[in-house]
C-alpha cells in the first residue's frame, strides 16, 4: 500500500464531514466548536513513552498518524473515535468483560477448526468476518471504539516485513472482525464509509427538493426505507451458509427497517396535512429511539443469555437505530427537527 500523507488525508476527511449537516449534527459539541475531528499531533517523546509502557514498537502507519493527530472522531456518530495515545491499551486490560463474553461464546459453540494461513489472510469484501482467532483477540491492542460496542484493534501476532500490524474493526454483531493488512488500510476503509454516507445524504436531499412539502414527500421517505431494506436483503442473500449468524443479524436489521416503513405507511394513510404529519413523525422517532434503547440495554446483559439471543438483540438495536436515523434525517431536511 502506498504511504499515506496523513495531514492531507485527514484534512480531506475533516472537510467532507464538516460539509455534511447530517454528520456534524451527531458529533460532540467540542468537535463542532472547533470544526476539527482530531487533536494536535502527539510528540515523539509521548509516543515513545507509550511504546515503553506497552512493551512494543507501534506499526509505522499508526505512529505516523499519531504524529499528525493524537486521536480522531470518524464522523459517523457521536462515539466512534480513535483514542489519544495515552488511552491506547491492550484489549484484555481495557475491555475485559467484552473479551470474556466473546471467549465464552467460543467455549459454548466450540472453538472452530484452525484456519489455514492462506485462507485467513484474505482481505477485502470476500473475507469471512467470523474467522477470528481467539488468541489474536486476546493479544490485540485497542486503539479506538465505535458505536454499539465495536472496536478498532491492532493485532501484534500478524506483522508484515514493513512492521505493519494487521488491523481490525471488531464487533460481536458482525460477528467477528473485518480485517485489514495495516492500520492505513483500515483508515481508508473508514473514510470510504463516510464518503458513501455523504453521497447517500446528497442523493436524499435532491429527492426531497424535487418533491413538494412534507406530506407530498412521504413517498420519498418510504423509498429511503425500501432502498435500505433492499440493500440489506442483498447482503443477506449473498452470504454463504458459513455466515449464518451474520445473516441472522442482517435479517434482524431488516425487520427493524420494515417496522419503521410500516409505521410511516400508517402515518401516510391517517395524516391529512402538515399539522398532523410532523407530530406523528416526531412521535415515531421517539418510539424508535425507545425500542433502540430497550434492545441495547437488554443486549448488554451478556451473562444472562446465549450468543444467539444476544445476536438477535444487537440486530434489533441496529435495525431500530437505522430506522430512527432515516426518520430523523427526513425531519431535519424539512427543518422540523
Describe what you observe in this structure.
- There is one protein chain.
- The chain is an alpha+beta fold.
- The chain folds into two domains: 6-191, SMI1/KNR4-like; 211-333, no CATH class.
- It is 61% helix and 10% strand.
- The protein has helices at residues 6-18, 21-24, 29-34, 44-54, 60-68, 91-94, 96-109, 117-120, 134-139, 183-210, 214-238, 244-270, 274-299, 307-333; strands at residues 72-73, 81-82, 89-90, 141-146, 150-159, 165-171, 176-180.
- Strands 1, 2, 3, 4, 5, 6 and 7 form a seven-stranded antiparallel sheet that branches.
- Helix 12 runs antiparallel to helix 13 and helix 12 (244-270) runs parallel beside helix 14 (307-333).
- The longest helix is centred in the middle third of the chain and has 28 residues, at 183-210.
- The protein is globular, with a radius of gyration of 21 Å.
What string gives the helices and strands in order?
A: HHHHHEEEHHHHEEEEHHHHH
Query: What CATH architecture of the largest domain would you give?
Result: 3-Layer(aba) Sandwich
Main pleated-sheet profile: 7 strands, antiparallel
- Beta-strand fraction estimate: 5-15%
CATH class of the largest domain: Alpha Beta
The end-to-end span amounts to: 43 Å
For CATH, the homologous superfamily of the largest domain is named as: SMI1/KNR4-like
The overall number of domains is 2
CATH topology-level fold name of the largest domain: SMI1/KNR4-like
The outline comes out as globular
List the uncertain runs.
Answer: none
- The counted number of beta strands is 7
Could you report the average pLDDT, rounded to the nearest whole number?
A: 84
Amino acid at each position: 500500500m502506498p504511504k499515506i500523507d496523513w495531514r492531507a488525508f485527514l484534512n480531506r476527511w475533516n472537510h467532507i464531514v464538516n460539509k455534511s449537516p447530517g454528520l456534524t449534527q451527531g458529533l460532540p459539541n467540542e468537535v463542532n466548536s472547533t470544526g476539527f475531528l482530531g487533536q494536535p499531533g502527539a510528540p515523539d517523546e509521548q509516543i515513545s513513552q507509550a511504546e515503553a509502557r506497552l512493551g512494543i514498537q507501534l506499526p509505522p502507519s499508526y505512529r505516523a498518524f499519531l504524529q499528525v493527530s493524537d486521536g480522531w472522531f470518524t464522523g459517523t456518530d457521536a462515539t466512534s473515535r480513535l483514542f489519544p495515545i495515552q488511552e491506547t491499551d491492550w484489549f484484555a486490560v481495557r475491555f475485559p468483560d467484552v473479551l470474556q463474553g466473546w471467549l465464552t461464546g467460543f467455549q459454548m459453540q466450540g472453538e472452530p477448526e484452525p484456519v489455514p494461513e492462506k485462507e485467513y489472510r484474505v482481505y477485502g469484501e470476500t473475507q469471512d468476518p467470523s474467522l477470528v482467532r481467539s488468541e489474536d483477540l486476546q493479544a490485540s491492542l485497542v486503539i479506538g471504539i465505535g458505536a454499539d460496542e465495536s472496536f478498532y484493534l491492532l493485532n501484534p501476532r500478524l506483522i508484515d516485513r514493513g512492521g505493519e500490524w494487521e488491523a481490525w474493526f471488531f464487533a460481536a454483531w458482525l460477528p467477528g472482525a473485518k480485517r485489514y493488512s495495516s492500520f492505513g488500510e483500515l483508515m481508508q476503509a473508514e473514510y470510504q464509509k463516510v464518503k458513501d454516507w455523504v453521497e447517500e445524504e446528497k442523493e436524499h436531499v435532491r429527492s426531497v427538493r424535487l418533491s413538494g412539502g412534507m406530506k407530498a414527500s412521504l413517498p420519498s421517505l418510504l423509498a429511503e426505507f425500501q432502498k435500505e431494506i433492499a440493500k440489506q436483503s442483498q447482503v443477506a442473500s449473498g452470504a454463504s451458509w458459513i455466515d449464518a449468524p451474520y445473516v441472522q443479524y442482517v435479517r434482524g436489521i431488516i425487520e427493524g427497517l420494515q417496522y419503521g416503513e410500516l409505521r410511516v405507511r400508517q402515518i401516510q394513510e391517517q395524516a391529512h396535512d402538515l399539522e398532523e404529519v410532523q407530530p406523528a413523525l416526531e412521535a415515531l422517532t421517539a418510539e424508535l429511539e425507545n425500542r433502540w434503547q430497550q434492545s441495547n440495554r437488554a443486549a448488554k446483559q451478556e451473562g444472562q443469555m446465549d450468543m444467539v439471543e444476544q445476536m438477535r438483540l444487537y440486530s434489533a438495536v441496529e435495525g431500530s437505530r437505522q430506522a430512527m436515523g432515516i426518520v430523523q434525517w427526513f425531519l431535519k431536511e424539512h427543518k422540523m427537527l
